[in-house]
Specification:
By secondary structure, the chain is α+β, with helices and mostly antiparallel strands. The chain is built from 11 helices and 12 strands. It folds into 3 domains: 101 residues; 96 residues, Beta-Lactamase (2-Layer Sandwich); 214 residues, Heat Shock Protein 90 (2-Layer Sandwich). Helix content is 58%, strand content 19%. A hairpin with a 2-residue loop joins strand 4 and strand 5.
């Protein structure tokens, strides 16, 4: 409706201008014609042809002028309407843009390269404690004391070179309180002027949480260290108690005259040593959860050779990978190795001048562990380990089948070999 009214007013203005041009032109032609008649043929009032031609010319000129003016006016009116609509749309978009900036969770402030504020949003005012009017008359050095210094100038140069930079700064509110802020600054160039657009966020709460976590971790670490010390002390005391028991058995062994009792006491003493050695290695290790069986079997085998095979021509070989077991599994494996190794020393080389014993432990398939003893002695029935009524064989069978849930495989084709396969416990399930 408004556009129609504007169009009508445009037509009327064009008509009036064209009509005025025609009237003025006709009057002008008439005046010129009268003057020329009096000057050329005085007293002759007859119809003048030049006058008619002049009138027709001005009427046609008025018509063309009307058409031209009307078209020009319509184009100008259409341009004004489009300009008005564009300005209205631009104003609406600017309102939305300002609404989005003012309602941003982050403080947004633009400043020129001389650090004077050019734009701030509501979040920046809230974070810094100033009004927009106050901030727009201030410079960045009023809220960040690093910027009048060389450090601040270095920040500006680095932002300009890298186009974008993220860092943390200590900023000052209007009331003088200082707070940590995380700043993301970007450089841009517009209308022959350089700007830095910064997004700031008060990270006081985040820093407090980080401090709490650091303090908690420190307390937890201290508590864990205390527990490690306590656990090591427990293993140390268990090892000492086992050594006391071993010493008592040794004292009893010295008093005994019965060779069978003496042998039983010696075996019990070495079994206790195999267990005590596990506890000793645990309190000596930095890792209280697992034991390296290679190191453990090296010490155990040397101790047993010193105890049982000092005067025998027996060579010893350890074929071991770095297998780490929990304390429970390590004790059980050590006891089985002890029984198999002791059996080989005592019975494998009867009637032979020399021999060799191999102790092995390695990784199997699907996370299993394979360990055992192999000798090149006289050999025995392969089923002896499973069928013998001796305490050592019963110990091997019970530990393997009940506690390790493993499998025993014997081979007597070349001396005697006994290997056990089992799935070790994980640390958390030990």
């Amino acid at each position: 409706m408004i556009s129609k009214i504007k169009k009508m007013s445009t037509d009327n203005r064009a008509k009036i201008q064209a009509l005025g041009f025609a009237i003025v032109g006709v009057i002008g032609v008439a005046v010129v014609d009268r003057v020329s008649i009096h000057l050329i043929t005085p007293g002759d009032d007859t119809f003048s042809l030049p006058f008619f031609i002049g009138v027709v010319f001005f009427i046609l000129s008025a018509f063309f002028l009307y058409t031209l003016l009307r078209r020009t006016a319509l184009i100008a009116e259409d341009a004004l309407i489009k300009l008005s609509e564009y300005q209205k749309k631009e104003k609406e978009e600017l309102q939305l843009f300002n609404f989005a900036l003012d309602n941003s969770a982050d403080a947004i402030y633009w400043f020129t390269m001389d650090t004077h504020f050019f734009y701030v949003n509501d979040a920046a005012c809230s974070m810094l404690g100033y009004s927009k009017e106050e901030l727009l008359t201030m410079s960045l050095e009023s809220v960040d004391h690093a910027f009048p210094t060389e450090q601040g100038e270095q920040f500006l140069r680095e932002i300009k070179e890298r186009k974008k930079l993220r860092f943390e700064r200590m900023q000052t509110r209007k009331d003088g309180s200082i707070f940590p802020a995380e700043i993301s600054a970007s450089y841009f160039y517009s209308t022959e002027q350089e700007f830095i657009c910064a997004f700031g966020r008060d990270i006081t709460e985040q820093k407090e949480k980080e401090k709490i976590i650091i303090d908690q971790n420190a307390a937890l670490k201290s508590s864990l260290q205390d527990k490690e010390v306590l656990i090591k002390e427990i293993h140390h005391r268990v090892k000492n108690n086992l050594e006391v028991i071993s010493s008592l058995l040794q004292m009893q062994n010295r008093r005994e005259t019965n060779p069978y009792v003496k042998e039983a006491l010696s075996k019990s003493q070495s079994r206790i040593y195999a267990i005590a050695l596990v506890h000793e290695m645990l309190y000596q290790n930095s890792d209280l959860a697992t034991i390296n069986m290679k190191s453990h079997l090296e010490r155990l085998s040397r101790a047993m050779i010193d105890l049982y095979a000092q005067h025998k021509n027996i060579t010893f070989h350890l074929n071991a990978e770095n297998i780490f077991l929990t304390m429970d599994d390590a004790v059980l494996v050590a006891l089985i190795i002890h029984e198999l190794f002791l059996n080989a020393i005592k019975h494998a080389f009867v009637g032979l001048e020399s021999g060799s014993i191999d102790i092995f432990i390695r990784s199997g398939i699907n996370g299993s562990v394979i360990f055992g003893v192999n000798d090149n002695g006289v050999g025995i029935n392969g089923d002896t380990v499973k069928t013998s009524a001796s305490l050592g064989c019963q110990l091997i069978n019970t530990i393997t089948e009940v506690q390790l849930n493993g499998e025993i495989v014997s081979d007597s084709s070349n001396g005697f070999k006994c290997s056990i396969t089992f799935i070790p416990k994980e640390k958390g399930n030990a």
